Amino acid sequence: MDFGLTPDDEDFRAEARAWLGAHAHGTSDRRAWERTLGAAGWIGLGWNGDGYGNRRATLTQQVVWAEEYARSAAPPRSGHIGENLLAPTLLAHGSEEQKSRFLPPIARGEELWCQGYSEPGAGSDLAGIRTAAVRGPDGGAYRVTGQKIWTSLAHEADWCFVLARTEPGSARHHGLTFLLVPMDQPGRIEVRPIRQLTGTSDFNEVFFDGAHAEHVVGGEGDGWRVAMSLLGFERGVSTLAQQIGFAEELAGVVRAAVESGAVRDPVVREQLVRQWAELRTMRWNALRTLGGCGDAGAPSVAKLLWAGWHQRLGELAVRVRGAAASVGPSDWSARSPYELDAAQHLFLFSRADTIYGGSDQIQRTIIAERVLGLPREPKGAV
After folding, report:
1. pTM score, two decimals?
2. How many CB atoms are located within 10 Å of the residue 278 CB?
3. Pick the catalytic residue: 234, 248, 278, 369?
């Protein structure tokens, strides 16, 4: 840690480390792991509300937990979208009924969520929403029709929060509504996994064909404000935990450079040192903006920094391996995940870092317009 910890924080670290040491290994069922975390109260540490089944923790303790989790080699989380994105959004914009209905199951690790934002043909332009939602003739539930893409964990999720257009003829950020849609609607919702370069399928296409949605967060037509609020929660304490994983990947690349002899190349040594220095810079920037400090462009700056850094690390990982890095799996057509080594997986997966979560071009536009006050980028006809 690079900032002072109180005795209570140190006690919290010891408790977290001991619990993870006792429970984090040998667990392959990710849904069962979420329930284990929930039963021990480790989900929802950052929520600013009581009575939902979560334990309360200071901001420093949230950082401690995130870093200890990253160091423990615990299973990847399936519930982080509900915990870190939807829950803070409900706390800020949801009704008391919605908070009581949805927060306790998230805290117990019983209901998993996915995010229905991106759409085909719109790229990173979130305002280009074409998925439509129309109220039934009785004024009750909406019927949602359209397609979402790059939807993480949709194949596991119980619910999806969907940004849909509820005002016919509206354009851009007007006429949008933030809906909560149950995924268990056979015949009305279809999930198709997207096979990635790595052979895995973490992302999905989701097709809605008259899917029912009863819950509106923030009111009809207020979806853009709610959606932007949610994106503000997307990069926070988790950024510091992400950097722990980056540090471990960098250490692996350094070991590979030593083993292969590539470290004797002065250019490679300079690149390794640069990666280390940039990672330290990202950490200090994350600490500087922790807890909402910094300007409106801080999340975009952070995304630009880590996406490019991680992509360059992937390139360096295969470079230090030499010719061995070009030897692929025996069967590239296999439907199961490819047998890639760590360097190959890092290189292939990181190609998407500068695209997903808002492309580099979108992040630079945000910084230009919202921080530097430059003229807004001209928009084409919709």
Report:
1. 0.83
2. 18
3. 234
